Amino acid sequence: MRLASQRAVVVFSMSSCCMCHTIKRLFCELGVNPAIHELDEDPNGKDMGCNPPVPAVFIGGRLVGSTDMVMSLHLGSKLVPLLRDAGALWL
Fold first, then answer.
1. In what order do the strands lie in the sheet with 56-59?
2. What pLDDT shows up at residue 62?
3. What gap in Å lies between CA 67 and CA 87, rounded to an integer?
4. What is the pLDDT of residues 1-39, one digit of tens each?
5. Which residues have a Cβ under 8 Å from the Cβ of 84 and sit 6 or more positions away?
6. Which SUPFAM superfamilies would you find in this protein's record (predicted)?
7. CA 51/CA 63 separation, integer angstroms
8. Taking the CB of the first residue and of the last residue of the chain, which one, N or C, has fewer CB atoms within 10 A?
9. What phi-psi label fits residue 85: left (phi over 0), alpha (psi between -120 and 50 degrees) or beta?
10. What gap in Å lies between CA 50 and CA 12, rounded to an integer?
11. How far apart are CA 82 and CA 86, in angstroms?
């Protein structure tokens, strides 16, 4: 939880996961610069676990969820306002 609250957007990911790549790409295209923690490259990654499954996305220090929840918010036009409120977007 400490890591999840250090930045406006935090993504816990696995470098080989295609869904993780999709979420990281979405944030990049939206102009968001998330803190990304690759659990398979971090020596403490196994201690952090994968529950919930990766990608685990935190916005404003709160768990938003995995790919399905992030994409649902995006398709419902609710992701950008959430990112704006968290200070991840300026415009």
1. 35-38, 9-13, 56-59, 62-65
2. 94
3. 21
4. 678 888 999 999 999 999 999 999 999 999 999 999 999
5. none
6. Thioredoxin-like
7. 12
8. C
9. alpha
10. 9
11. 6
What H or E segment, with its residue span, contains residue 64?
strand 62-65
Residue 59, C-beta contacts closer than 8 angstroms, at least 6 positions apart: 8, 9, 82, 83, 86, 88
Residue 23 to residue 46: CA distance in whole angstroms? 21
Beta strands 9-13 and 62-65 are: unpaired
Query: Residue 88 has which token pair?
Result: 């991840």
Measured CA to CA, the distance from residue 90 to residue 24 in angstroms comes to 19
- Tokens encoding 6: 């250090």
